[in-house]
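TASK: fixed-backbone design
INPUT:
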């Protein structure tokens, strides 16, 4: 059948695609034209808010990092102070324990001094009793001849020989001899002998009784020196092994 020359020809495929795209564009334009001003404003504001948040994040990040670094420095400083405080606490604990030990030692020393004082008081009491007996013997022997009294005195009173050196004068030593006599001992005339001696009482018999007598003489000498403002370390009683001999007082004094 021959074609109708008056009929509209079919559009090509390419033209059909172009028409479809144009129709879609017209549809989108009509949709966009339906938005109000408020809707468009909201979209713009939301976009700006997102952009501002992103900008704030990138601007605030370095500052946050700086604050974090500062906080870390402060934490390290606080940790250092805490460690120092712990060390001070340990030192204080150590000093406290040492103080407790010192107090315990001081208490023990006080107790030892108390015992020594009690022993000294007992010794003084014993020698006072001995002195009373000696004085009674002196009174009983007063009627005897002089040589007999001297023999009795020698027998009743233990002899103590005094040797001295230094700038001390003899009257001072004679006062010491009198003090020894009042303490129950017989101290003949002293000798000035310088052998570089230390202040001590020598005893020659290793017996408890002889040691006790030597310590008693040392105490009497200490009391006399202290009472006459003559500074000297306390005398010691020293055993000198050898043949039995009376007690000896050796002094190096620069007083009196």
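OUTPUT:
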């Amino acid at each position: 059948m021959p074609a109708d020359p008056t009929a509209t020809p079919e559009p090509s495929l390419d033209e059909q695609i172009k028409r479809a795209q144009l129709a879609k564009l017209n549809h989108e334009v009509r949709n966009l034209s339906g938005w109000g001003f408020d809707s468009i404003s909201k979209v713009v504001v939301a976009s700006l808010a997102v952009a501002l948040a992103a900008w704030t994040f990138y601007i605030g990040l370095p500052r946050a990092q700086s604050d974090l670094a500062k906080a870390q420095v402060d934490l390290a400083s606080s940790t250092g102070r805490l460690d120092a405080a712990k060390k001070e606490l340990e030192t204080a604990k150590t000093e406290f324990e040492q103080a407790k030990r010192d107090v315990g030692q001081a208490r023990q020393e006080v107790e030892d001094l108390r015992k020594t004082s009690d022993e000294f008081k007992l010794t003084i009491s014993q020698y006072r009793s001995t002195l009373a007996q000696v004085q009674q013997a002196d009174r009983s022997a007063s009627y005897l001849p002089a040589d007999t009294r001297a023999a009795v005195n020698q027998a009743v009173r233990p002899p103590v020989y005094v040797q001295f050196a230094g700038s001390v004068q003899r009257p001072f030593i004679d006062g010491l001899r009198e003090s020894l006599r009042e303490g129950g001992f017989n101290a003949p005339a002293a000798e000035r002998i310088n052998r570089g001696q230390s202040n001590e009482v020598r005893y020659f018999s290793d017996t408890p009784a002889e040691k006790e007598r030597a310590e008693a003489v040392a105490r009497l000498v200490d009391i006399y020196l202290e009472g006459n403002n003559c500074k000297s370390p306390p005398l010691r009683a020293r055993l000198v092994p050898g043949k039995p001999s009376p007690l000896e007082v050796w002094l190096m004094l620069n007083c009196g």
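COMMENT: Residues 51-156 form one domain.
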